[in-house]
Design goal:
Length: 140
């Protein structure tokens, strides 16, 4: 699933979601299946049931959540589950962004990545080197 806009000035999940959407996705990922009332109770700020329901339904419409309704008549429960784990979501979004940047800006992206690695954890450089070695062995 492709995020239509990424906010570079934000951090964490706020890069991909609005602030409230990000908070709600974190709750859903943590609990795996939630009701509207459960999310409402777990949010730090006091929000109305209808506000939480609207955000959950929008996340469902965007393809991030599955929605299940059980019960009949006035006694119905709506449950939401994530379509992807948080790790799967992050992996997919970083792949999409990286492939797009490499496709459009090739050498610049490679140079920027190498420059950024100078300020990163040395273990990340080891991961990069191992992946490059792996890729080279597969090419020969």
């Amino acid at each position: 699933m492709r995020i239509l806009s990424m906010k570079l000035s934000e951090e964490g999940m706020n890069r991909f979601f609005g602030s409230l959407e990000a908070q709600i996705m974190e709750i859903v990922w943590l609990h795996e299946q939630v009701t509207i009332k459960k999310v409402q109770a777990l949010l730090d700020e006091e929000l109305s049931f209808n506000t939480v329901m609207t955000v959950l339904n929008r996340l469902h419409e965007k393809g991030h959540l599955q929605k299940t309704i059980t019960g009949q008549g006035r006694v119905r429960t709506t449950c939401f589950q994530p379509v992807q784990s948080k790790e799967q979501f992050i992996q997919e979004q970083t792949r999409i962004v990286t492939e797009g940047l490499v496709h459009e800006y090739g050498h610049l992206v490679v140079n920027q990545l190498v420059d950024a690695m100078q300020h990163a954890d040395p273990e990340l450089m080891e991961v990069l080197e191992a992946r490059l070695d792996e890729w080279k062995r597969g090419k020969s």
